[in-house]
Amino acid sequence: MPAIHISKLLTDSGDEIRLDYNNLRKTLLVIRSVNHKIRQQMIHLLTEHPRLTVTEMYLKMRLEQSIASQHLAILRRSNIVTTKRIGKCVYYSLNKDRLENIGSLIKELAKEDAKG
Amino acid sequence: MPKDNVIFDNVQSMELRESLLIMRAITHPLRLKIISFIDKHRSVSVHKLYTGLNLDQSIASQQLHILRSANLVRTQREGKFVYYQINYNTLARVNGLIEEFRKK
């Protein structure tokens, strides 16, 4: 779907509004990736333990490995967790800058919604 | 575990819900088309919208309700008629926040 251009003269700032469905969809997917209990628990766990393997995570969280891997993959796609291979093990860590950016986006969007 | 209402970085579950409401409202091809149509005509009735875009009235009303809940459009009543207009400042700010986030 092509981007939609909205009359810019009608906003206070005079900025152009270019609505791009693809950008919107990608951003929605990022926000949705933190909208899940298990993924929120993973973020919390990685806040307390700077790096963990999938095995450590699913044991601590009492999840099946396949479930843990699925949710980690979603967090990885949003760039909220990063991986690092050390020897035979893959370690997961939190991308704190990314998480902070996502957090401020959510807070700012919520302010706009609250004005309605 | 963190407190029930705090998700991470002091983001409250309420804020996550509200941000998703606005993101889901705008991230929708038909609703983007509706936004564009209202913008072109400045102020439209439901009737003008569903005839102009060839939609069922019930679908047009439903989509307008979602856009209005997210504060992306507002209504103005003139006598018996209700007209829909774009809430340009909200739309500009929301889209600006998203564009800024995508650049990071």
Looking at this protein, list some descriptive labels.
heterodimer, A: 116 residues, alpha+beta, Arc Repressor Mutant, subunit A, two-stranded antiparallel sheet, B: 104 residues, 3-stranded antiparallel beta sheet, two-stranded antiparallel ribbon, 61% helix, 18% strand
What does this structure look like?
The complex is a heterodimer of chains A (116) and B (104). The two termini of chain A are 28 Å apart. The relative contact order of chain A is 0.12. Chain A is an alpha+beta fold. Chain A has five helices and five strands, in the order ββααβααββα. In chain A, the strands form two sheets. Chain A has a three-stranded antiparallel beta sheet. In chain A, a hairpin with a 2-residue loop joins strand 4 and strand 5. In chain A, helix 3 (54-61) crosses helix 4 (65-77). Chain B is α+β, with helices and mostly antiparallel strands and 104 residues long. Chain B has one domain (6-103): Winged helix-like DNA-binding domain superfamily/Winged helix DNA-binding domain (Arc Repressor Mutant, subunit A), CATH 1.10.10. Chain B contains five helices and five strands, in the order E-E-H-H-E-H-H-E-E-H. In chain B, a hairpin with a 2-residue loop joins strand 1 (6-8) and strand 2 (11-12). In chain B, helix 3 packs across helix 4. At the A-B interface, strand 2, helix 1, helix 2 and helix 5 of A face helix 1, helix 2 and helix 5 of B.
